[in-house]
Structure formats: structure tokens, C-alpha cells
Amino acid sequence: MKVTYGVSVDVLRMLFNDAPTAESDEDKPGVILDYAEDGTIIGMEILDASKHMSNPSGVEYAVVGVKSA
Questions:
Q1: Cα separation of 31 and 15, whole Å?
Q2: Which residues are within 8 A (CB) of 57 and not within 5 positions of it... i.e. 6 or more apart?
Q3: pLDDT digit string (tens) for 17-65?
Q4: Strand locations in 1-69 (E)
Q5: Does the model's pTM come out above 0.90?
Q6: Taking a C-beta distance cutoff of 8 angstroms, is the pair 49, 63 a contact?
Q7: Contact (Cβ atoms closer than 8 angstroms) between residue 38 and residue 23
Q8: Is the distance from CB of 30 to CB of 46 less than 8 angstroms?
Q9: Strands 2-6 and 41-47, how do they pair?
């Protein structure tokens, strides 16, 4: 996963994989979901990110739980 924040446009983007975007849909106002050709979600954008989070340029990442084999 790759997370980027565009300061000049105030957009937070999360890419889940490198598949090309075939379609984008604004699911809720200010939340855009990007889809691959097969319909899987490959990314998400949050417009006006600084209005929805206290620090869009800071990301905290944590792995919770243990995946069983």
C-alpha cells in the first residue's frame, strides 16, 4: 500500500496495488474510489483532507492481530 498527501491540492491518496485505474466513483462527497478493470478497489482519495483529519501529512501504521496459517 502506498499513501500520498498532496499539500497543494489537499488530497490524501491510498493506493492498494499498481493495477491501472479503469473507473473512479465519488461514493460519498469528497471520497473517490478507484477500481480496476475487474471491479476490485485499487485506491481511494479523500478530497479536502485537512478538513477531515487533524494531520493529513502524518500517517500512523499498525498491524493488529496475528494471521493464522
A1: 14
A2: 5, 7
A3: 999 999 999 989 999 999 999 999 999 999 999 998 888 878 777 888 8
A4: 2-6, 11-15, 23-28, 31-35, 41-47
A5: no
A6: no
A7: no
A8: yes
A9: unpaired
